[in-house]
Amino acid sequence: MLKALIWLILTALSGGGVVVYALHQQYEEQSAEFRILYRDITVKLSQNDVILALLSNSSDPKVVQQKFPYILRWQTSPHYPPRPDINPARAGTYWINSPQGSLLIDLPTLLADFVRTQKFRHFSLSWQGTPLLTQGEGGDKDGWRWEKSIASPTQPLNLAVTNNPDWRMLPWFLIILLGVFWAVAIYFYNQYQVTRHQRNIADLRAHFSELARLNAMGEIAAGMVHELNQPLTAILSYSQTAQRLIKQQQTDKALLLLDASVIQTKRISALLLAFREKLHSDEQALQPVNLRQVWERVVMLLGNEIERGKINVINQIPESLPALMASPLGIEQILHNLLNNAIQAQQQTEKGWVCVHASQTATSIILTVKDGGPGLTDQALEQVFMPFFTTRKDGLGLGMALTETLVQRLNGSIVAENIPHGGACFTLTFPLAQQEA
């Protein structure tokens, strides 16, 4: 039943598209016919103005009517009292009035050739709602209608034609072929899905339970090692430096380092709490996060590394950027990993730099992190987000994999590429209306 419904929908959509296209072609063809008819009638009517200007009292009536049989009468002096430019007489005739004189025009005779050869179901010429010439049945119920005023200062008649689509001319054979095509396509796709489903079930039943359990345990363990290693290393560095400063009686500087150690210790506590919550639930608490403040905090946490590597950090996150609904710790981990990788990539660079830029679109926030390093190799561009892939000797290869996971949990995306003059660029896109993945 479902396959029949899908076939019916696909056939109706594709067949409907063909029908719409064919009707559009018919409409365009008849529109072209209307334009030709309008042009010819306009040219024909404009001749009356020329004739009216050339006639005089000495003109031979027989010669005039022989050459212009549609001119029934004329007057070469202005009518008094003045009449309107057009004065309808009996059906199909009207006076053209101007300062040069007046002409009584027999419209059916004037347009006999055009009316006889026109292809529309209904044809009419009128002036201010008064019909002068009509042909065919009334066109009020016809599907297509074209109407336009004649571009003539003395004969601004209104030309209107109507017609209906010619359903006999639709490509019915092509529509039948489309139905056959979709039936064959659905049949083969169904056979492919059945075969693939059976093969996947056989593989998944053998490995799913064990792999899922091992993967979860490995992800948690590897993530803990990677995330705890950096703050512990920072605490060790801060503490050792503080010891030397205390021995040198520089307690003020030592206090700043100890404060930084306290911040890193709190960060470890928050990471452990997050991993503990991960064991019990996949849900994460979302709250408004100021990206500029989080970036400044990450820069402070990596202050020693930035100073040691002589890295110039450029912050282009506008203060007016709206808050992002996210996990504050998750955003901090993302930015921490990106900045740390950028610093590590420029260890051999004399003038290293990192630039972060953020902008807002109608539906998302776009964040880019660029650096002045050597950029990513072709292999790194393909595998940078794969677990355990690293270009550093002492790296675990989990930082960018975890970063991608955190971004995806916020319904976002991350893309790695190289900038033209060297260096890597990571582009992160977060939707403004965040929902948990």
Order of helices and strands: HHEEEEHHEEEEHHEHHEEHEEHHEE
Largest sheet, in brief, is: 5 strands, mixed
**Which residues sit in consecutive blocks of at least 5 with pLDDT less than 50?**
none
Rg, rounded, reads 41 Å
Beta-strand portion reads: 15-25%
Distance between the termini: 33 Å
Question: Largest sheet, order of strands side by side?
Answer: 10-12-13-15-14
Overall pLDDT metric: 82
Catalytic activity: ATP + protein L-histidine = ADP + protein N-phospho-L-histidine
GO molecular function, one term: phosphorelay sensor kinase activity
Protein name: histidine kinase
Organism: Buttiauxella brennerae ATCC 51605
Tell me what you see in this structure:
The chain has 11 helices and 15 strands. The chain is of the alpha+beta class and 437 residues long. The chain folds into 3 domains: 168 residues, no CATH class; 84 residues, Helix Hairpins, CATH 1.10.287; 153 residues, Histidine kinase-like ATPase, C-terminal domain (Heat Shock Protein 90), CATH 3.30.565.10. The protein has a 5-stranded mixed beta sheet. A 4-stranded antiparallel beta sheet has the order 1-4-3-2. Helix 5 runs antiparallel to helix 6, helix 7 crosses helix 9 and helix 9 runs antiparallel to helix 11. The longest helix is centred in the middle third of the chain and has 76 residues. The protein starts with a helix and ends in a 6-residue tail after the last strand. The model has no long low-confidence stretch (mean pLDDT 82).
